[in-house]
Amino acid sequence: MSDHRRSIPVGPSRPDGAGRPDRGADGSDTLYARVGGTAWFSGLVDRFYGRVPAEPALAPMYPDDLTEAKRHLALFLGQYFGGPAAYNAERGHPRLRMRHAPFVIGPAERDAWLRLMTAAVQGGGLAAADENEVLGYFATAASMLMNAGPTDGAGTGRMPGPAL
Ligand code: HEM
Q1: What is the CA(68)–ligand 1 centre distance, in A?
Q2: Predicted structure pTM score
Q3: pLDDT in tens, 50-94
Q4: Is residue 119 a part of any domain in this protein?
Q5: Is the CB of 141 under 6 A from ligand 1?
Q6: Ligand 1 contact via 81 beta carbon (within 6 Å)
Q7: CB under 8 Å to 18, separation ≥6 — which residues?
Q8: Nearest to 58 by CA among 147, 153, 140
């Protein structure tokens, strides 16, 4: 590893979805494997997106048809937690800050997103250590994706510029 790479923070708390050097290359002993693979992540995003339409701070940001949003998030999370690199294969490098740039994400939006995701995770029946790892990751990542100060919490803000 070059000095340049060493200077980049990596590890379980790295929220941008890049490599997880703490995981075995053969996929063993990953959180992905422990929770049962893709099916657990699909269930998680179903529980999360099931609550989005009723959350005023978030609903206006999302398309009516959540099918693709669900799939992309499940692929991303499975990959992040040690599963196959299926998200990168389909979508390229995650670049989550860039992909969220069109949306105005202030503290109210972050808090709403995290509240829904926390409930979704807690509904997943994980062992305590795994649940804590997943919750810790989401708390860090959600704060990293904030790109605005306080908003009116109506979830209608969009940055000017091209769509995703
Ligand atoms: C902080 C509050 C957040 C808000 C308000 C938010 C909002 C959104 C919205 C509106 C989309 C586009 C959905 C679509 O049009 O299909 C999206 C996509 C996505 N979000 Fe978030 N998000 C947040 C946090 C996060 C976090 C913490 C993660 C990961 C840990 C994440 C991962 C993703 C992924 C992977 C996509 C799909 C990107 C793609 O197109 O490939 N988001 N998000």
Answers
A1: 11
A2: 0.84
A3: 999 999 999 999 999 999 999 999 999 999 999 999 999 999 999
A4: yes
A5: yes
A6: no
A7: 10, 93, 94
A8: 153
